[in-house]
Amino acid sequence: MNDPRRAVLSPCIGVCRLDAHGFCEGCHRTGSEIAAWMSFDDATRLHYMDEVLPARAAQETPVVDATLIDRLRNALHDLGSPPAGAGWNYAGLDDLLPPHEALTPAAVLVGLLPRAHGWTVLLTLRTDDLRHHGGQVSFPGGRMEATDADPIAAALREAREEIGLRADQAEPIGYLDAFDTISGFHVWPVVARIAADYQPQRDAKEVAAVFEAPLDFLMDPRNVREVEREFAGRARRYHEFSFAPQRIWGATAAMLVNLRERLERVR
Questions:
Q1: CATH number of 66-264
Q2: Domain ranges for the chain
Q3: What does the alpha-carbon distance between residue 189 and residue 164 come to, in Å, rounded to a whole number?
Q4: Tens-digit pLDDT profile for residues 173-188
């Protein structure tokens, strides 16, 4: 089996400008580090991506965009009222899934980080050998446990376990529409603002890498495509972003499209 970490060879997020201190505004590398990147071995690259570059990002002066937070509060479901009923996509999977009430409750954390170059979205690359959605880009999250008071508690717990995010580093804002997965989960996506000084501490058994993607890129409809494939005797549609070297598709891409559509309603 290939090492899943090889899928992430670069922290580049497409913002390629050096600041006054000689660091890239997007990935926080120096010009010399960018030039030498392909000569580094995997251990060195991961050391930079797990420790060196997040530490530099934490020292930035973040953007302050109260407008986005206000728009999100108006666009999302209230924190006290998780969206009820089947996921917005259930009709497209009703021949593959049990009744909505039989799906496994789950939650994910859609984390937004303020950076000097703009807002970013916190994403993970799952390890290849996970039972569900192995090797895919996802939000931190998982099934709800009996000890979780609500989907918010579940999303925060999973984020702590998977990527070392403390509860005091996340400010929940609201819910996206619930989403049902082909693997049998009913997922509540919780949108939250993440503290700028957060530094990933991933669980290597579940998370191959933690990375950020520019929110502006993900909210631009030109950067996502809808793909149709036949599966189990029926045409199915899914969304897909190409964010080199990653492919963001399936449930994660659908939730990002849902975020864009809800934001568009409150412009």
A1: 3.90.79.10
A2: 4-58, 66-264
A3: 19
A4: 999 999 999 889 999 9
